[in-house]
Amino acid sequence: PMLAITEHLLTTVQIPSLHFYYGARSDADLVLLERLLRLGDLGAAVSLSAEQASGAAVDDHSLAPVREGRVIDHVASDWTQLAEHDIYLAGPVGMVDAALRILVRGGDAKADRVFFDRFIA
Question: Does residue 58 have a pLDDT over 70?
Fold first, then answer.
């Protein structure tokens, strides 16, 4: 869903900037890299992270090296001022809940500007 929303925004709406963060448990769990490359080609800043990352570029694609650590921690450290931004989240319940705690309760993101989809197994 996040890829589809992002592709739609980049191809139909004129927005000043869009940053797409994608996280996984390990480098091997990062998938749909061709679609992520397309987001970059369309103008998005794409950031990849893995809790256990090697720091190397993934599959020789021209995406930035994978950052080690939780994706939400990278978002929080990269963006200390989020009050004027819309934030879209998708992932496991624990990740979404942690993101809400960090960005809204612990940061300045506005709850009414955070949209999310919790993946329930």
Answer: no
